[in-house]
UniProtKB/TrEMBL annotation:
Keywords for the protein's UniProt record, in alphabetical order: ATP-binding, Nucleotide-binding, Transport
Protein name listed in UniProt: ABC transporter ATP-binding protein
Recorded GO MF terms: ATP binding
Record domain ABC transporter: where: 4-230
Record SUPFAM superfamilies: P-loop containing nucleoside triphosphate hydrolases
PANTHER family according to UniProt: ABC TRANSPORTER, ATP-BINDING PROTEIN
Signal sequence, renumbered to the chain: none
Recorded superkingdom: Bacteria
Length: 294
């Protein structure tokens, strides 16, 4: 079922078209990545989805309700791009405040658990004013998650996090997906997106430049073979494959193609140093798409 949907969103700021025409869907139990260069419109799209910026045109549905109905946001968790909490509050008090503001009913134990999930259990009683950048971002995540939302929208959740924090967030997102929660996340850390997202929407200059599942965007994996002692017979057997320096590349390999090739090469006394799956990375694909669009 659809958790977030928008169609034909447009937004101008004075003479500048921030969003030309954006439609996208996030289904329950799906993690969708929103990618694109600075100024592409990612934050603006997120804000229009959440009713924080009024679109000039287009429609929004959140968890089955029209975006203009405030009740549509009752089960939505949001981590904004730029935020500051009241520095005199402790982490626990910030969570308490947001639970109250959301009108949610979250027992104290569950609030503590959420702080634990983002790695702040032992800083729960400390004032936010003394938090490091990454700790503030962790607290922002806790605020987004504490009320057990059905849709979670995260605008750059890991930009300030250390590698362990990023891995933690990845685990958190996988856990949310397993519970059927929908996640829309915007990040410049493309490796993160590639690891965790089911689908990706690439924005460029206020438009959707590409969208799809990772296999749709990246194509089938290739396989690279590093070989030694390649005799004449083996050369013949490898004749159809692309040669890239010392490696042979099997593009778009069928189910049994690689095992059959390896078996033949072994029979021909070829020494097999490596058989490695390779595929263009999402980062390479993203750069291609953005350069093509120029
Ligand atoms: N309040 C505003 N007033 C004027 N222009 C705005 C406003 N908010 C956004 N814009 C413009 O809309 C465009 C998209 O901005 P947006 O913040 O959505 O980009 P983004 O994709 O989130 O970029 P980043 O990766 O840097 O966060 C930019 O050209 C920006 O200058
Ligand atoms: Mg942004």
């Amino acid at each position: 079922m659809t958790a977030a949907w928008c169609s034909g969103l447009r937004k101008r700021y004075r003479q500048r078209t921030a969003i030309g025409d954006v439609s996208l869907t996030v289904r329950r139990g799906e993690v969708v990545g929103l990618l694109g260069p600075n100024g592409a419109g990612k934050t603006t799209v997120i804000k229009m989805l959440l009713g924080l910026v009024r679109p000039d045109a287009g429609e929004v549905l959140l968890l089955g309700r029209p975006g203009r109905d405030p009740a549509s946001r009752a089960k939505v968790g949001y981590l904004p791009e730029l935020f500051r909490y009241q520095p005199w509050l402790t982490a626990t008090e910030v969570l308490d405040l947001h639970v109250r503001l959301a009108g949610a009913d979250v027992p104290a134990a569950a609030r503590r658990e959420t702080l634990g999930q983002v790695g702040l259990a032992d800083r729960a009683g400390d004032r936010v004013g003394g938090f490091s950048k990454g700790m503030q971002q962790r607290l922002g995540l806790a605020v987004a998650l504490v009320s057990r939302p059905e849709l979670v929208v995260l605008d750059e959740p890991t930009s300030a996090l250390d590698p362990i924090g990023r891995a933690d967030v990845r685990d958190l997102l996988v856990g949310l997906r397993a519970r059927g929660v929908a996640v829309l996340l915007n990040s410049h850390l493309i490796g993160e997106v590639e690891r965790v997202c089911d689908r990706v929407v690439i924005l460029d200059k206020g438009r959707v430049a590409a969208a799809g599942t990772l296999p749709e965007l990246l194509g089938r994996p290739e396989v690279r073979l590093r070989l030694g002692n390649v005799g004449e017979e083996a050369e013949k057997r490898l004749g159809n494959f692309l040669r890239d320096g010392a490696e042979y590349v099997v593009l778009d390999a069928g189910e049994d193609e690689v095992p059959a090739l390896v078996a033949d090469l072994v029979a021909l006394d070829v020494r097999i140093h490596a058989v490695e799956p390779g595929r263009i990375t999402l980062e390479e694909r993203l750069l291609d798409i953005l350069r093509e669009a120029k």
